[in-house]
Each structure stands twice: as structure tokens, then as C-alpha cells.
Amino acid sequence: MPPNTGGHPRRLWSRLGPGLPRLAFLTLLWWVLSGGAAAAWAVGVPTIAAAYLLSLALSKPVVRRWRLPALFRFLSYFAIHSVRGGVDVAWRALHPSMPLHPGIVHYRWRLPAGPERIFLANIVSLLPGSLSAELDSRSLTLHVLDSRLPFATALRELEARVADVFGLPLPAQEGGRD
Amino acid sequence: MTISDWVGGALVLLGMPFFLAGTVGLLRFPDVYTRLHALTKADNLGLGLVVAGLALQADSWLAVMKLLLIWLLVLVASATASHLVARTALHRGLAPWRAERP
Q: Could A29 and B38 be called an inter-chain contact, meaning their C-beta atoms sit closer than 8 Å?
């Protein structure tokens, strides 16, 4: 992050800003869990403060440029593929001959190292026919239910969508089979 | 009974066969990797449908958000847990089951 050269309010924002979404999320979480009861805030405020400090100690907040339109596109993509993944595996499980052609495949990352890779690896496990088995600095290792399917194309698309949600640039070189 | 009660009930009923299919897959599939597929994907879809169905019948927005939170936590937990099981199996050198090609 470049140093902030703006006026005082901007400087204050640059110090407090990165942690605020986290604080807002924890507050929302408490509100949902406590059912909005007014008396619960007496316990809630110290609990939220403690959880916030603990989360800051465990991981530093970074500024993320979330793109809301991309996020909504991603959520609908995710919903459709969750249904396809569930139907696909249910069909394979219930089919008398159990059509399976599993295999291990590797996919070379285009995403930069960071939490986005873990996010992608988890999403991959929820999509049709793929399960993330290992991630290292170079590639993502997957177990697939049908190794004859064009997994690399699907992964490239998914990776581009994740990059879009987090506002990350992807290198021009092809990700793909390792 | 309102329309949303009917639709909600239908979604809950629609979700249940996926839990059954996930369990059938867990019992029938040949190795740990394929079983993880059955458990995570079929159960997540089943839970998603049940949560959507219950949310339609919920009394308040707070209950809806609580249901969504449960779904989200299960998604994160099952994706993480299945990854850890698969990774451990891979590190121990457990070869994935392969279909016999004719």
C-alpha cells in the first residue's frame, strides 16, 4: 500500500479503515447470534472488542478492493454450479454402474500468493467433480471425478472470476496443466 | 399456509434426497477421495435447499440471517475438512482408485 499523503481525515482512515469491515462483520455476527436483544450488548460489546483484537493479532487487515457487481456475478455462478455439482455426484452415487473416471490433475496458479488462493481452493471443492487436495507455491492439485472432462478451462474461468471479485490482475500467461 | 410456506416446504423436501445420495455415495464409492466428493457436494446442496426452504418460512430476518450463517459455516468447514483429509491421504501415498479402462 502506498503511503497516504492526504489530509488528516484520510490519514486516520488509512489507519482505522482496513480493520473496519472486520469490526462491522463481528458486530453483525453478534447481532444475529443474540437475536438483537438489547440486554445482550452488555456481554456483546466486550466480546466483540476481544474478538476484534484477537483477529488483529492473528492476521493483519489488508485493503481489498471488492467489486460488488463481480461478487454478485460470482454468487450466481456459485449457486448454479453448486446445484450442478450436487446433482452430478448424486447421479453418480445412485447410478447402478457408478460412472467414475477419477484422477489427479494439477493446475498452475495465475492468482498471486495469498488468501485468494485458499478461497479458490475451497470453492473448487464445492464445484462439480473437483476436490482440492494440495496447494503449493506453484500449483493447485485436484482430485477429479471424471478426468476426461476439460477441467483446465473450467478452472481458468473460475480463477478469472475470483480475481475479478477481489480486484486482482491476472498475468497474461496461460494457467493450466502443470 | 401461504405460498412461501408451500415453496419453503417443497425446497426442504427437495433437499433431503441429496443427503440420502451423499450417504449412498459415502458407502458405495471406491476410495477416500471419491467419498469426499459425495459427502461435500451432495450434502452441501441438500443443506442449501433445506436452508433456503426454512428461510422462506422464517418469522424474522434475524432467523434468515442465522440460517445463512449456518449454511456458510458448514460450507467453509466441509471444504476445509475435505481438503485436509484429501491432502493427508495424498501425502501418505494413497493412490486414487482408477476405473479399469476397457
A: no
Taking CB atoms and an 8 Å cutoff, what residues of chain A touch B41? 82, 85-86, 88-89, 126, 128
DSSP string, B1-68: --HHHHHHHHHHHHHHHHHHHHHHHHHHSSSHHHHHHIIIIIHHHHHHHHHHHHHHH-SSHHHHHHHH
Given B66, B79, B89, which is nearest A125 (Cβ)?
Answer: B79
Contact between B96 and A104 using a beta-carbon 8 Å cutoff: yes
User: Cell digits for B4?
Assistant: 412461501
User: In chain A, which residue's Cα lies nearest the Cα of B81?
Assistant: A122
- Backbone Cα Rg of chain B: 17
Three cell numbers, residue A144: 477429479
Q: Cell for A178?
A: 502443470
Pairing assessment for the beta strands A130-135 and A103-108 based on DSSP bridges:
unpaired
* pTM for this entry: 0.84
Grid cell locating A27: 458486530
CB-based contact (8 Å) between A94 and chain B?
yes
Cα of B97 vs its chain's centroid, Å: 23
Of B44, B73, B80, the C-alpha closest to A127 is B44
A146 contacts chain B (CB < 8 A): no
Digits of tens for pLDDT over chain A (178 positions)? 455 444 566 676 666 677 888 899 999 999 998 887 888 899 999 999 999 999 888 888 777 777 889 999 999 999 999 999 999 999 999 999 989 999 999 999 999 888 899 999 999 998 888 999 999 999 999 999 998 888 889 999 999 999 999 888 888 766 565 5
Distance, in angstroms, between B2 CA and closest chain A CA? 25
Secondary structure of A107-125 in the HEC alphabet?
EECCCCCCHHHHHHHHHHH
